[in-house]
Design brief:
This protein has 261 residues and is of the alpha/beta class. The chain has nine helices and eight strands.
Amino acid sequence: MAAHAIASPGLAFRDELIATANALAAPGKGILAADESIGTIGKRFASINVKNTEENRTRYRELLFTAPGIGNHISGAIVFEETLSSKGTDGVSMVEKMRRAGIVPGIKVDKGLTIIPGTEGESSTQGLDGLGERCREYYAAGARFAKWRAVYKISQNTPSSVATKENSWTLARCGAICQQNGLVPIIEPEVLMDGHHDIERAAHVTENVLVATYSAMMQQGMLLEGTLLKPNMVCPGMDYPGKVTGQDIAAYTIRTLQRAV
């Protein structure tokens, strides 16, 4: 029996999703990760003897998003939830300051990693529960893209088929929910560099992971033009005894993307 494709969850926001994805991928620009949690930013402030208060956090973020010419180099910024609702010292919302600078606001929507039972310490990403409602709230607050990260480790027996299936399906499910609520999903299936594996093994694993991810995305009817992929570079493990060049890494990474995406 032939499989039937499901309707794209992003149809209601189709044009906006595509426009946002194109804006984020503007040539010569990058995406700023400014989603430090309250605890993480507190550690940074402690190193310069600054108190970790909401006022100081707001002033720090305002300094970032109002830097002269920042929009010439940054297309989007992933922010912490607090930033979406905060206002600058002049009463203007942080989201509006980002927009004035030409920066698209984004938000991290996953809730961290948990161990998959029965595996060799492999992980899956949490956060699907209530994600639709959170995405609606983020969109209303001004966010226009979201990031979800899955992690794979390479060893003799990993990634397992269980972890690959679990993470690829969850990445796609998150992406579909984001698109349904107007957010461009950044799909991030990250193959870690930990281990002794060579670059051929890294390329093989990364290719399999990407194929599984895009297969799941297609099955869930995602609008691919309204997505971004954040892939890992194809590199040998950090404990690999041999040597590879930057050109080797570039060649393997490009080959893997050409084969899988």
